[in-house]
Design brief:
Elements (H helix, E strand, L loop, with lengths): L9 H18 L10 H11 L3 E2 L27 E4 L8 H13 L3 E7 L5 H12 L3 E5 L5 E3 L8 E3 L4 E6 L7 H23 L7
Parallel strand pairs: 1-2, 2-3
Antiparallel strand pairs: 3-7, 4-7, 5-6
The structure holds S-adenosylmethionine.
The site of S-adenosylmethionine has 20 residues, from loops.
Length: 206
């Protein structure tokens, strides 16, 4: 049985319908080509310096190196600093998040732009769940992004009918500052040892 909705006026009912319709075009299986706004990407690119866009086409790729639907980004190896704005349709997002997480475990840094769907199971498993273990960072995007889709709207951008978040998966060494500090101290130890080796031991008797 479908859930019935009660609206105080006909205008409110129509406004709710328009909102649902607008939201649904971004999740439609028929069209997955919504481009990240360039200024938004540029801001993240300045911070991370992306090397690979794992879901793209030749017209919307954000990096010189990219994978398309024909390559199937999910079947490729993700290395280096990776940008990921995947297709959003239904549960389609889940394998992309899993791949992003797994790739970080083997050394990649993966920055993902996804809907901030905090009520979904995937959000709790792959985003919030990983963030609680220090394995992901969540940055909520203020306001609503305007996505471009030349096929749907050749002259402009459409405001998303949903909130967005950037989720960052980093290699395990960056999961907490304690391990980075430990690494730094160890490197200093190595430098100290090398210095002794060059100048000779402090006490030649030893
Ligand atoms: C939301 S758009 C993002 C485009 C662009 N990377 C950006 O950030 O503006 C998702 C892109 O993924 C592509 N795509 C869909 N399935 C894919 C797959 N299996 N492997 C790689 N790319 C895929 C779509 O054709 C589309 O261009």
């Amino acid at each position: 049985m479908s859930r019935s909705r009660v609206y105080p006026t006909n205008a409110a009912r129509q406004a709710a319908y328009r909102k649902r319709k607008k939201r649904s075009i971004f999740f439609s299986r028929k069209c997955r080509e919504w481009e990240t706004p360039q200024d938004f990407f540029d801001q993240y690119n300045a911070e991370f310096g992306f090397e690979l866009d794992v879901c793209a086409n030749a017209g919307n790729a954000k990096c010189a190196r990219f994978f398309t639907k024909e390559d199937d980004g999910l079947k490729q190896a993700w290395q280096g600093v990776v940008w990921m704005n995947p297709p959003y349709g239904g549960r389609e997002l889940i394998p992309w998040l899993k791949k992003a997480y797994d790739s970080a475990q083997t050394g990649a840094t993966v920055v993902c732009l996804i809907p901030a769907s905090t009520g979904t199971a995937y959000w709790w498993e792959w985003v919030k769940g990983k963030a609680e273990k220090g394995e992901a960072e969540i940055r909520f995007v203020p306001g609503r992004l305007h996505f471009k889709n030349p096929k749907k709207n050749p002259n402009g951008e459409d405001p998303a009918g949903f909130d967005s978040a950037v989720v960052i998966y980093r290699p395990p060494i960056f999961h907490n500052t304690k391990s980075v500090t430990t690494l730094k101290l160890n490197l200093e130890d190595v430098v100290f040892t090398d210095h002794n080796a060059i100048t000779g031991p402090v006490n030649p008797e030893v």
